[in-house]
Amino acid sequence: MATIIEKFFDDKNALTAELSATLEQSLRDGIKNDGRAVLMVSGGSSPAPAYKHLSTLDLDWQHVDVAMVDERWVEPNHEKSNEAFIKSTLLQNHGAAANFITMKNDADTALQGASDCENAFGELKRPFDVTILGMGPDGHTASLFPNAEGLDNGLTSDNLVCAINAIQSDVTGSITERMSLTLNAIAQSKVVKLLISGDEKLAVYKQAKAGGDVNDMPLRAVLNHPSINIEVYWAP
C-alpha cells in the first residue's frame, strides 16, 4: 500500500492555507536542490484558490515547470480545457513566467497524439516535486476512468502518459476522449496530494482505500501502489 497521510480540515480555507504553504515549500526546495521544480497540476475547484495564491509569490518561476495531470482532447481555448483553467489561475502574475508543458497537441485524436505528448513529458525532471490529483464520485483520478478504453494501459504501462476514452456518464460529460498521466508517472513524484471535499467523496475515498477491483475504481491503484507517498486533503 502507498504511504498515506490524511489531513482533514474544518473548512476549505484551512485546507487552502495548508496546501498553499506546502506547495510553495516544495517548489522552493526543488529549485534549491535540483535547479528546477516540477509541478503536475489538475483542474477543478479545490486547488483553484491555492493556484491563485501561488501565482502571486515571488518564486524563481523561470525554473519551474508546470505540466498537466490530464486533459480533455479539446482546443486550449475550449471552456472545458484544463489548460485554460491553469492559465487563468496559476499562470498569472509572477506565475506567468513558469514553463508550461501542454498535453494537447495538433493530433486529431489523443491516441495519435500520445507519442508527442510522451516525448514532451519525458523531458521533465524526475522525480516530479508534486503531483496534484482530484477524485470523482466514480472513483476515477486524473483521467483514469472506470473500465475506460485505455485504462489497462494507463495502469500497467511504463510510459508517462496514455490516451483514454472513457465511458460517457454524468461524471465525464460529453467529452470522453482524454490524455492522462499513467500510474507509473504518478508514482514518479516525491509527493502526491489528493484533494477531496464533502462527505460523499470522503465515503468514495474510504471505499477505494479498502481495496477491490482497480478497474471499477482506478483510485485504488494509486492508494495501493507500494512506492507512492500520498497526502490526502479533505474538507467539508
Strand tally is: 10
Order of helical and strand elements: EHEHEEHEHEHEEHEHHE
CATH class category label: Alpha Beta
* Overall pLDDT metric: 97
User: How many helical stretches?
Assistant: 8
Could you say which structural class the secondary elements and strand pairing correspond to?
A: alpha/beta
> Share of helix among residues?
25-40%
- CA-based shape: globular
Percentage of β-strand residues: 15-25%
CATH architecture: 3-Layer(aba) Sandwich
What name does the CATH topology carry?
Answer: Rossmann fold
Please list the strands of the largest sheet in the order they lie side by side: 1-10-9-6-2-3-5
Largest sheet: 7 strands, parallel
Question: Termini separation (Å)?
Answer: 26 Å
Uncertain residue segments: none
As a whole number of angstroms, the C-alpha radius of gyration is 16 Å
Number of domains: 1
Describe this structure in words.
The structure is a single chain. The strands form 2 sheets. A 7-stranded parallel sheet has the order 1-10-9-6-2-3-5, with helices on both faces. It has a 3-stranded antiparallel sheet with strand order 4-8-7. The chain has one domain (3-235): Rossmann fold. It is globular and about 45 Å long. It contains 8 helices and 10 strands. The protein is of the alpha/beta class. The chain has helices spanning 12-34, 48-55, 82-89, 110-122, 151-156, 183-187, 198-209, 219-223; strands spanning 3-8, 37-41, 64-68, 70-72, 99-101, 130-133, 161-165, 177-181, 192-197, 229-235. The chain is 34% helix and 21% strand.
